[in-house]
Amino acid sequence: MSSELEYLSRRVAAGKLSRRDFLGRAAALGVAATFANTVLAGAVRAEGPVRGGSLKAGIQGGESTDGLDPAAINNQVTGAFARTWGEKLIDIDAEGGMVYQLAEEVGASADAKTWTFKIRKGVTFHNGKELDANDVLATIERHAGPETKSGALGVLRGIDTLKVDGTDFVVTLKEANADLPFLMSDYHLIIQPGGGKDNPQAGIGTGPYKIASHEPGVREIGARHEGYWNATNSGFADQVEIIVINDSTARTAALQGGQIHMMNRVEPKIVDLIKRLPGVTIHNIAGGAHYVFAMQCNTAPFDNNDLRLALKYAIDRQDLVDKIVRGYGTVGNDIPVNISYPLFSNDIEQRVFDPDKAAFHFKKSGHDGPVPLITSDVAFPGAVDAAQLFQQSAAKAGIVLDIQRAPGDGYWAEVWNKKPFSASYWVGRPTQDQQYSTAYLSTADWNETRFFRPDFDKLVIAARAELDEAKRKAMYRDMAMIVRDDGGAIIPMFNDWIDAVSDKVAGFKPYPSGELMGGLALSKCWLVA
Questions:
Q1: What are phi and psi for residue 355, nearest 5 degrees?
Q2: Among candidates 128, 23, 112, 98, which has minimal Cα distance to 504?
Q3: Spatial distance between the Cα atoms of 167 and 119, rounded to a whole number of angstroms
Q4: How many beta carbons lie within 10 A of that of residue 32, not counting itself?
Q5: Which of 259, 310, 392, 437 could make an SS bond with 362 (beta carbons 3.0 to 4.6 A apart)?
């Protein structure tokens, strides 16, 4: 029986038998569906990628204001779609290691201040132009320029000069930075022809799919780029489609009904329900992703550190971990990095719920009256429930939180990084320097807490240049303490990425860098016949 089942599974993997017929034959042989699916999955992996079909994902986070400029990527839909049509110099793999993408080689001077990127030959943009070092130069210039609003600006502030040397792209830094190649993996830094300076919204890149349709807040469609340089490793479906489904229940129903093949942002409270759905698998992985309640330190009443400390002591972190992430995450400590990062110091005292300390600091702050907090379903899975739990624990300290629920459409454009106290999330970054430079450096465009500290900035810059690991680790510990005790980020928990994927999809492998394989699932996965 087992040999016949294996034979049938190989026929499915080869595209000569449908999955439905396979399961029917397996049932006739007296084989349970669970075991049959396990055998089939092994056969599909052994057979390798299959080309063809339309691969669809239901993703939360899209808005009617979404554009195609990589510099403005600020939600899951724009980020995932950009990963289908665009590529960077460097990428990050499933183990957190560096992968050469449009750069095929990277070299550094002995002092780690000058970096040379050898640009890959034989790569063409979707408009037919061949990629060269000038396109790379223009792209980084646009993201690092004085008028930029790029989300990557924080990691590019240390650049002194950029130049093209023959076919190479050369970056010279003001100070040494051993992490520069990792910084070039920032998801905004998609290389565009001419840097995208003429029309950054054109959506022209070097990725496996060309843009076929762009309907902001509704759907995004990519059609296979036949001239793609890396077709043996990516771009297996004929077409990829992202359907914007911000409601969790609707996403689950679409997956169950076969309208989509994968979905992001599975809420932990429904994981067990989805596990019972036939033909669906839950994938989860831990990393540096975390949920935040962000207070702007330069805006009253959050410009008072006693008020900020009061709110940090007023949140019951363990309660949120138990009820919001339900075991798919860990307690946070108001520090945007955790044990998943190299050089992290795990000896920092864990902040815990303490209503007495919260009440003390609240009284000392002199603030009187409710504290408004804006949240939304799209801020993070369970964000509305998390805000209500925060409200309940704060009440025990005599602090009244005024919870204001904002609609999903427009949240990332109109609320996040604009309102003084709101729910947020971060996917984490490959290195501590990148996380701090993106969100906490005074000059960072995405400094959502408006945390402006010259002494902190100096530490960030000094740590980049420090090649002694012990000294660098000590610097990162000092930075963590400053952010924890004086910053505006309440970070109650780190979350696992939880995706749900149909068994009709093969090649899926969770990445700690983000949901749906760090945004690469549509490009890296394929449909089983």
A1: -60, -30
A2: 23
A3: 6
A4: 10
A5: 310
Q: Within a 13 Å sphere around the CA of 504, how many CA atoms are in the beta-carbon half?
A: 23
Residues 231, 49 contacting (CB under 8 angstroms): no
Please identify which residue in the block is written with the tokens 């952010």.
483
Cα separation, 39 vs 37, in Å, equals 5
- Note whether 414 and 74 are within 8 A (CB): no
Report the pLDDT value the prediction gives residue 1, as an integer from 0 to 100: 47
Question: Whose CA is closest to 425, among 401, 448, 403, 457?
Answer: 448
| Residues paired with residue 124 on neighbouring β-strands, in sequence order | 130
Angle of helix 469-486 relative to helix 432-439, nearest 10 degrees, comes to 30
Regions of the chain where pLDDT drops below 70: 1-2, 7, 10-20, 33-34, 37-38, 40-47, 529
Residues in the chain: 529
Quick one: tokens of 15? 């595209």
Angle between helix 33-47 and helix 2-13 axes, rounded to 10 deg:
50
Between the two ends of the chain, the Cα-to-Cα distance in Å is 23
pLDDT given at position 260: 98
- Counting Cα atoms < 13 Å in the Cβ hemisphere of 9 gives 22
For the beta sheet containing 497-502, the strands, ordered from the edge strand earlier in sequence to the opposite edge, are 209-215, 219-224, 239-244, 54-59, 262-263, 497-502, 280-285
Place of tokens 């296979």: 224
Which strands sit side by side in the sheet containing 103-108, from one edge to the other?
103-108, 114-119, 168-173, 159-165
Query: Which residues contact residue 480 at a Cβ distance below 8 angstroms, ignoring those fewer than 6 apart?
Result: 335, 337, 345, 348
181 cis-preceded (ω within 30 degrees of 0)? no
Distance CA 287, CA 83 (A): 20
Strands 262-263 and 54-59: parallel
Amino acid of residue 170 = V
pLDDT value of position 457: 96
Dihedral through CA 182, CA 58, CA 495, CA 430, nearest 10?
0
Residue pLDDT, tens place only, 250-306 = 999 999 999 999 999 999 999 999 999 999 999 999 999 999 999 999 999 999 999
CA distance 195 to 449: 30
- Its pTM stands at 0.82
Of residues 447, 373, 430, 424, the one with CA closest to residue 403: 373
User: How far is the C-alpha of 59 from the C-alpha of 280, rounded, in Å?
Assistant: 16
Q: How many helices (H) and strands (E) does the chain have?
A: 18, 21
- 436-469 burial code (b ≥16 CB/10 A, e <16): bbbbbbeebbbbbbbbebeebbebbbbbbbbeee
